[in-house]
Amino acid sequence: MGSKGLEMARAKMQDAGVDPVAIDTFAHYYRLLEHGETGMIAESTISPLEMPALADVEVSDEVAAEAIRTTVVIKLNGGLGTSMGMDRAKSLLCVRRGLSFLDIIARQVLHLRKVYDATLPLVFMNSFRTSADTMAALARYQDLQVDGLPLEFLQNKVPKLLLSNLVPASFPKNPDLEWCPPGHGDLYTALRGTGLLGRLRDAGFRHVFVSNSDNLGAVPDARVAGWFAASGAPFAIEAVRRTSSDRKGGHFAQRKADGRIVLRESAQTLDADLDALADLDRHRFTSTNNLWFDLDAMTEALDARQGILGLPMIRNVKHLDPVDPTTPEVVQIETAMGAAIEIFEGARTIEVGRDRFVPVKTTNDLLVLRSDIYDLGRDFVLDQASEGVPFVDLDSDFYKLVRDFDKRFPDGAPSLREATSLVVDGDVTFGRGVRVVGDVAIKAPSARRIEASAVLAADA
């Protein structure tokens, strides 16, 4: 018999029809939380990690083609884009030529099927908030779903817990806010609970490629598939060199106790270790959240643990209503899917180019993606057309929300191919065909409009 809070949470999840394995997994983390577990990874327990680069690896065309033919693609698609003011799947955002993230993902996969004569199933892990919109948007791609396999499966949901006493939060005004996703580490629980893991194995597939739907650089590349298949590794993650924009983000390291690779997120870093977290010379690699796993190895690991991989817990404290700081503080129990790397002996990481990591987390990222920094080829793969990707920082008072952002770029994004940085302080609207050259900083004490075809260079 558990504590009162856990029993209340169990009952709430059972009443909501949550999968029993997901309930047991939640209970596992609840007990850790109750006993003071924070999921922190101290700097003293880890060492920096080195790794090979994909650019230095030889993969034959035959190995690459065979690997992609036994691969399944899963896109994480549970996010609403609430930080950008959206209330539907972020992947519905228009990004290029009238196409959304979903359009481009679907067309990337359909193109690769033809090139490699591959089945290459595409499956979305949706949340209960993104499922309907996503499936409606994908209905136009009648050949996308593979016979015998679903086009989506749903991630689980868990109750938010009041920070004060760890009982499930109640919010009658908006009951949906009583729930949260348990982080993308729920991928493995949901795959098992829905039976999809077994169905993929039964259909003869060997490998799974997983990535975020808001990262259009995460194409199911045959060369990476070939490297993973030839490595014989049970699990692997693509990594990139950290830049100044990654200082506060997670990184890879090697655990001193057993030599296993670990992924330390910022929420798992002690205050005393924040300088080490930000040290780009010490911890040089961050995760793209593009990961690969062997279906047999994952099944064996889950079976051996009764469905609970035991990923490191992330204790996330937020307000019950994320946009209302007057609502009570709650604990969201989460896990990260990349943390599964420490579960598997022989897991690997490989350094890939930054072109495989083009996430859109803010409207700053969205402006870069909508600009001419990238060309969208006939294969629907993003090709970087400039030497570098400029740093963009738009005033959050005027650009943070998509609706406000769109108002200030009514005729499209400016040209950024010649830009090194664009910093906007104030309310600025851009006309059609504006060019940004070099380092540009715009300070607008009052509302300002940049005229069409203007060239911005140095301080404007």
What does it look like?
With 460 residues, the chain is of the alpha/beta class. The chain folds into 2 domains: 353 residues, Spore Coat Polysaccharide Biosynthesis Protein SpsA, Chain A, CATH 3.90.550.10; 95 residues, Hexapeptide repeat proteins (UDP N-Acetylglucosamine Acyltransferase, domain 1), CATH 2.160.10. 26% of the residues lie in helices and 26% in strands. It is built from 13 helices and 23 strands. Strand 12 and strand 13 form a beta hairpin. The protein is globular, with a radius of gyration of 22 Å. The N and C termini lie far apart (66 Å).
List its salient traits.
460 residues; seven-stranded mixed β-sheet; 2 domains; 26% helix; Spore Coat Polysaccharide Biosynthesis Protein SpsA, Chain A; alpha/beta; UDP N-Acetylglucosamine Acyltransferase, domain 1
SSE order and pairing:
Elements: H1 4-15, H2 20-34, E1 46-47, H3 61-69, E2 71-77, E3 94-96, E4 99-100, H4 101-116, E5 122-126, H5 131-138, E6 152-154, E7 158-159, E8 161-162, E9 179-180, H6 186-193, H7 196-202, E10 207-212, H8 222-231, E11 235-241, E12 251-255, E13 261-264, H9 274-277, E14 285-294, H10 295-304, E15 314-319, E16 329-334, E17 348-351, H11 363-370, E18 374-376, E19 382-384, E20 391-394, H12 396-399, H13 402-408, E21 415-430, E22 435-450, E23 455-457
Parallel strand pairs: 2-5, 2-10, 5-6, 11-17, 20-21, 21-22, 22-23
Antiparallel strand pairs: 1-12, 3-4, 7-9, 8-16, 10-14, 11-14, 12-13, 15-16, 18-19
Helix pairs in contact: 1-2, 2-6, 3-8
